[in-house]
Amino acid sequence: MQNISDIYLAEQTSVPIGEKFVVFTLGDELFAVSAQKVTEVAQPLSITALPNAPEWLFGITNLRGEIVSVINLPKLWNLPIPTSFARPKIIIVREKLGTLAIVTDKLNEIVSLTNDVIEPCKENSHICAQATVEKKTLNLIDSEKLFSVLSEQRV
Q1: Above pLDDT 70, what percent of the chain?
Q2: E strand or H helix at 73, and its extent?
């Protein structure tokens, strides 16, 4: 498992001051979550499926004694689902409401985004904004809204 602070230490480039985001791929789209909310990036963990769970919930895993929900974002968002995750990683996100794990196709990079490149989304969802970096569009996830949506949908 790789701690997110280790990734920061390895980053030796000078970037404009802004909020850092962990960028990952799901299918053909790029998503990002605030690096402040990411506690670590892990190799796939053992996941226990739950009976009668919603389709968007892969299951739960034990992360050093803490039970963590493992989320399938493409199912939650009705996106095309990859047949297999190419280089899967699990991003561990911690909020006031708890901890969850997001399975990704691929972990891309950490970027620093300034407010002038971030465009808020008009609709009220867990994708709170978009940013364009090197001609690529990043969908920025509001992890707090994601947690609240997941809490409401839990069975």
Answers
A1: 78
A2: helix 73-77
